[in-house]
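Sample entry as discussed:
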Amino acid sequence: MHFVEPSREVLAETLLAAGPGALTLCEGWRTQELAAHLYLREHNPRVGLGMVLKPWRKATDKAIAALAAESCTPEAFAALVEKFRAGPPKMSIFALKGFDHTANLIEFFVHTEDIRRATDRWAPRALDAGYSRALWTELVKRAAILYRSVDLGIVLVNPEGHRHVAKRAPVSVAIIGDPGELVMHANGRTGEALVSFEGQPDAVALLQTADVGL
């Protein structure tokens, strides 16, 4: 089952419910910057490359800031979100189902939670079992990259009993949680991820201060 399209809908509705000016977990970004990021990465290839290539990052940040500044009113913000909801152009690489799944499944989940969890009162969503499995599968593919800066071995464990060794080292920590929570932790939202740890106390303490994510 393809989960990206419904995830796009949920993210768009979450953005609209929050409105412009709402806090997110993305440092320095409110909802209008997040919406601008989501739209531009699919509609402007040069801006999209700047999100992964440092030499172009300043231009990308400038483009996001400019579009966000134009989208501060409720009407302009809603129009931007609707453009994002409509999906990528037909000639975009994001229009390819395989690439769309790889690039957007975790992206849309994390950014939805970036909005939801930026408030004082939130609760984890009850995710469809198939959706959770899809998140786990994508997380396993990229976990080594996301934990590359951690000076520990990392083992991811979900409630179904699946284990994945993301990184090997003499001292390891197991991170235990539902797939969505493991995705949040691996993508740097460590303080907002509902996970638990198993390992030596000093190793767990090191992990909790480590640089995780891209």
